[in-house]
Amino acid sequence: MRTRETVHCRNPDPDKRGINIPRWKFDVIRGAILGVLAQNTAGVEFKRLSQLVRSHIPEHTVERLGSISWFTTVVKLHLETTAEIERIPGSKPQVVRSTTPPDRVTKGTE
Predict the structure, then answer these.
(1) Which secondary structure element, helix H or strand E, spans residue 11, and what is its range?
(2) How many CA atoms, within 13 angstroms, populate the side-chain half-sphere of residue 60?
(3) Is the pTM of this model over 0.85?
(4) Average pLDDT, stretch 34-54?
(5) CB 37 within 8 Å of CB 56
(6) Is residue 50 within 8 Å of 69, Cβ to Cβ?
(7) Which of 10, 32, 45, 92 could form a disulfide with 56 if both were Cys (CB 3.0 to 4.6 A apart)?
(8) What is the pLDDT of residue 53?
C-alpha cells in the first residue's frame, strides 16, 4: 500500500490538537497564502484571505483541493505557529501579514 506524505498542521491554541493534511495540499495553500501576503505587505483581512488564495491557484488544482476556505484556515493557523505570518495585534477584524520580507518568500509546489 502506498503511503501519502502528510504535514501535521499545528494550532496556535495549545489546547487544540493539530490535523494532518496531504503535503501537496499544504504546499499549494502555503505558497498561495505567502504569495497573497507578499503582494499585500500591510496585511489582509482574514475574511478575505480564502478568496485571494483561490485566485493564486490554477483552476485544475482548485478542483482537486476540496474546501479552500477550510485548508486556508488550517494552514494559516500553522503558519502562525511557525512565525511565517502573524496577526496584526489589535486589528478588528483580524488582519494577517507575512513576517518574511516579500523578496524572500518561497512558493510551494502548484
Answers:
(1) none
(2) 1
(3) yes
(4) 97
(5) no
(6) yes
(7) 32
(8) 98
Residue 60: CB atoms within 10 Å: 8
Q: Over 80: is that where the pLDDT of 103 sits? A: no
Which of 27, 36, 22 shows the shortest CA–CA distance to 95? 36
pLDDT for 109:
40
| 81, three cell numbers | 505557529
Q: Give the pLDDT band of residue 1 (cuts 50, 70, 90).
A: very low
- Could you give the count of Cα atoms lying within 13 Å of 52 in the half-sphere of its Cβ? 20
* Dihedral pair phi/psi, residue 60, rounded to 5°: -65, -30
Alpha-carbon distance of 29 to 71, in angstroms, equals 7
Q: What is the CATH number of domain 23-101?
A: 1.10.10.10
DSSP notation for 51-91: HHHHHTS-HHHHHHH--HHHHHHHHHHHHHHTTSEEEPTT-
Set of cell numbers at residue 68: 479552500
